């Protein structure tokens, strides 16, 4: 087996890919994805925003990959040059030993700076990309490029406006409201389960709150869907207890129910009173 290490900084500097990268060729997987999306229009605002952001994703990832590529090539060139300069390996271990290759190094530097400048001006598709631009601007990584502070600041401002106009998640108030709705709905499901002596296994599918599981639950146990979703109206579709009953009427109806259901109703009432501090 040959012990030649095939690392050549000189050859690495010469074998440079083309710099004309304005057009990013889409890989087959991305082409299939775009085609599928064209055939399936988004159904929600979040989905529409996701697709608008995704239109920026391929170009950004390509720009980021180019910057990382040239950075890695520079590090490789430096490592090979250092190993050759200081005799880190026995004579002949490197495929091509050489003195400091200034021309090759500067060629890599120019390619890296060009890629960095293009990435700084490439539209961002997520907040992390904007944070990277701000960090690069603060560190003045663009100092030796043709890109100005004003150009980068303008690009960042445009990114922020785009991402703000096309959020991927609901705001905190909406998320909290959604969590409260789900928690209340799950509690009502547990209340029904307690009144019907349902096991945890029987209850588990409904607690996922998936539409078809909720439909199965309400149909199987005769639960009033309006009550389950919003807490209004009768609990059961054929419920002898009406929401506008007086206390005396409610007590009279409860006494006609089986003992197990009476205990469950009493427990539910006690829980509600505790929650309301009564």
Low-confidence stretches: 1-23
Beta-strand content: under 5%
Compressed to H and E, one letter per element, the order equals: HHHHHHHHHHHH
Summarize the main sheet: none
Number of strands: 0
What portion of residues is helical? 55-70%
Structural class: mainly alpha
Radius of gyration: 33 Å
Please provide a brief summary of the model.
The protein is an all-alpha fold and 278 residues long. It has helices spanning 9-14, 28-39, 45-85, 102-121, 127-138, 149-165, 172-195, 200-207, 211-221, 225-230, 247-255, 259-275.
Which descriptors would you attach to this protein?
2 domains; disordered N terminus; 278 residues; mainly alpha; elongated
Structural notes for this entry:
The chain is an all-alpha fold. The protein has two domains: about 10-165, no CATH class; about 170-275, no CATH class. Helix content is about 65%, strand content about 0%. It has twelve helices and no strands. The longest helix has about 40 residues, at about 45-85. The radius of gyration is 33 Å and the shape is elongated. Residues about 1-25 have low confidence and may be disordered.
């Amino acid at each position: 087996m040959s012990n030649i290490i095939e690392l050549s900084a000189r050859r690495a500097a010469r074998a440079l890919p083309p710099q004309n990268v304005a057009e990013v060729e889409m890989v087959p997987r991305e082409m299939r994805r775009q085609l599928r999306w064209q055939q399936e229009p988004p159904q929600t605002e979040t989905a529409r925003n996701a697709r608008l952001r995704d239109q920026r994703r391929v170009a950004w990832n390509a720009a980021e990959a180019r910057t990382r590529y040239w950075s890695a090539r520079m590090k490789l060139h430096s490592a090979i040059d250092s190993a050759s300069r200081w005799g880190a390996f026995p004579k002949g271990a490197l495929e091509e030993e050489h003195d400091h290759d200034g021309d090759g190094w500067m060629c890599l530097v120019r390619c890296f700076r060009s890629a960095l400048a293009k990435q700084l001006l490439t539209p961002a598709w997520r907040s992390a990309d904007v944070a990277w631009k701000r960090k690069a601007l603060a560190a003045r990584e663009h100092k030796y490029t043709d890109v100005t502070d004003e150009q980068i600041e303008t690009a960042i401002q445009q990114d922020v406006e785009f991402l703000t106009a096309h959020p991927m998640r609901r705001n905190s108030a909406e998320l909290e409201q959604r969590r409260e709705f789900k928690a209340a709905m799950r509690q009502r499901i547990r209340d029904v389960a307690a009144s019907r002596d349902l096991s945890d296994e029987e209850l588990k599918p409904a607690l996922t709150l998936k539409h078809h599981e909720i439909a199965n639950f309400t149909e199987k146990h005769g639960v009033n869907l309006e009550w389950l979703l919003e807490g209004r109206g009768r609990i059961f579709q054929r419920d002898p207890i009406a929401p506008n009953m007086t206390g005396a009427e409610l007590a009279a109806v409860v006494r006609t129910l089986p003992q197990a259901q009476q205990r469950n109703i009493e427990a539910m009432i006690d829980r509600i009173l505790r929650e309301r501090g009564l």
